[in-house]
Design a protein that fits this description.
Length: 57
């Protein structure tokens, strides 16, 4: 959130996180428990490729 300069967590989830999940850029570490307090997210291989492409320009 700090990197994107966002303050509203709901806005972050709806406009960034959920879109990234739907596009296959990030994935949940515990997909069976999406509301777990231990839930984290990681880049998928596609997400890593996109990030690498952006960093080369």
């Amino acid at each position: 959130m700090a990197t994107l300069k966002l303050q509203d967590e709901k806005h972050l989830r709806e406009h960034y996180q959920q879109i990234a999940i739907k596009r296959g850029l990030i994935e949940m570490t515990i997909p069976d428990k999406p509301r777990s307090r231990l839930q984290k997210y990681r880049l998928t291989d596609l997400g890593k490729q996109v990030l690498a492409t952006k960093n080369t320009h």
